Amino acid sequence: MGVVTQAPTERTxxxxxxxxxxxxxxQVRLGTSGLRVSRLGLGMMSYGADPGGxxxxxxxxxxxxxxxxxxxxxxFFDTADMYSEGASEIVTGRLLRKLTxxxxxxxxxxxxxxxxxxxxxxxxxxxxVLAAIDASLERLGMEYVDxxxxxxFDPETPIEETMEALHDIVRAGKxxxxxxxxxxxxxxxxxxxxxxxxxxxxxxxxxxxxNLLYREDEREVIPQCVDQGVAIVPxxxxxxxxxxxxxxxxxxxxxxxxxxxPANPALYxxxxxxxxxxxxxxxxxxxxxxxxxxxxxxxxHKPAVTAPIIGATRVEHIDQALAATRLALSESEISxxxxxxxxxxxxx
Length: 348
Fold this sequence. Notes:
By secondary structure, this protein is of the alpha/beta class. Helix content is 39%, strand content 11%. The chain has an eight-stranded parallel sheet with strand order 9-8-7-6-5-4-3-10, with helices on one face. A two-stranded antiparallel ribbon has the order 1-2. It has one domain: NADP-dependent oxidoreductase domain (TIM Barrel), CATH 3.20.20. Helix 2 links the parallel strand 3 and strand 4 (76-78).
């Protein structure tokens, strides 16, 4: 597979921070927009007690982790209306009000998945999108979100209907920007074209699945975003813990989430995945660092990537992620990490 090499403007300064070993976290532009976000985003999916999950953290447990992230310079926080049935947005809002100022943080949330009973309680219809943003703002305790993202593409709703509704949300001041997540390149191109043709708000970011075990978006989605100046903010950079070494070949999990939230076998667990994981472990041993640092540093060396969305259920996870921003991988190390990969079916 080809590797994306075209670099956005902010990549040069981000690389300098890594190579110089600076302790401060870089703030970079979100694509070609004027919005700046921290080089790492904190995913809030792990916070907000979920009665059905059993692994997410409540507000008290999450507070020291979010505090450490803010102290370290993380300003970008990502959640969704369906995480822990809305509890994630509630915890996100409470902690950010307590720990930082509203204008000092960038808050992103999402819409698509079911949040209320009935056929209109999900998807990207005008009815659901307009109801969902109001519900999210109420849970967050905020007057606006910085980035309002569609969680998935909705084939049952005309894209014109969705893009106009998103534009109206921006015009109403309930969101500053809009973003997308996990879709085919042609779907994303269609949405952007519809917005441009009608003078509506275009997407400034793409939150996609991208890590050493899943690189299929290098084919079309990432090159498309780079060409159009759209930020890449990948989720699952550690592949649900596989790249951190928290999931064994036999499926056993070694962390709270890995133990109580089994990984989807359709995503990870192929024999070649463990060949890649072995390479991560080899480089980590040679560098005497945690495997998660190597996997995340690989992300940060990808010119197209703006800000990976990391998950953290312990304070040390934040510290490991910060250390990854200061880790310069050699070309030979990057080649060794990437060499075992084999193309696979596109997911999502």
